[in-house]
Amino acid sequence: MTAAGTLVPFALKEAPVSEPYPPLAETVARIADLCRASGKSLDKELGVARLSRAAGVIESDVETLLAGGTPPEPDTDVMVRDRVRFLYRTHTNADGKPRDIHDIAAAIRQTTTWTRKLVSGEAKPNLVVGHALCKYYGVALGFLTDPPADALKRELQISRFNLEVEVDPEQALRELGVMHMTSRNPNGFERSQLAAIAKMVTSITSDLDMVKLQLNRLGTPEDGR
Questions:
Q1: pLDDT band of 214, cuts 50, 70, 90
Q2: Rounded Cα–Cα distance for residues 132 and 130 (Å)
Q3: Under DSSP, is residue 184 helix (H, G, I), strand (E, B) or coil?
Q4: What is the DSSP string of 135-163?
Q5: What mean pLDDT do residues 115-122 have?
Q6: How many CB atoms lie within 10 A of CB 219?
Q7: Contact indicator for 148, 71 with CB cutoff of 8 Å
Q8: Tens digit of pLDDT for each residue in 132-175?
Q9: What is the pTM (predicted TM-score) of this model?
Q10: What is the end-to-end Cα distance of the chain in Å, rounded?
């Protein structure tokens, strides 16, 4: 990115194939280190209520996972339906009321009748509808399909990354595989520019990774939607 704000080419190294997320304990330990370095509150970053809402995981499962335990493995079909209900119930308007059913139906391109069944758990979304629903609510594409452990790891990775960018944006870029960037500014990139580039790169790579996971995890509901 130049001083004028124009992004110039950068190179990415090829990342090795690995598990979607690192071990939970490793991420929590890194968040603790970053909180100490940045002066942020660790209790806030690991707040059970916040993580539950962001991950779509019930608070008791969040507590179990943070304590190093393993919650019961959910039935995938039931989990997806529960996550849709959870999303509708908890991601509300500013007045605390659920989003308008007509707006949701328009966003996912379905009838209001079927959409009511969807948010009540009577219907299950397919890949396209699930993606549109997540986009409408502004949540991760894996919100409906990630098992509890992966869902929590996903949200903690977001917290870790945001802290990493604040503390050391160059390190964050290296972890993303950015090996080289060229700036027309002789003084190089400013810290805020590095942070912006890091967020852009992680957004792109996260979307691609989540699409791959969605293709494997999200089935087609009985009514073919």
A1: low
A2: 5
A3: coil
A4: HHHT--TTTTTS-HHHHHHHHHHHHHHHH
A5: 96
A6: 15
A7: yes
A8: 999 999 999 899 999 999 999 999 998 998 888 877 766 666 66
A9: 0.69
A10: 43
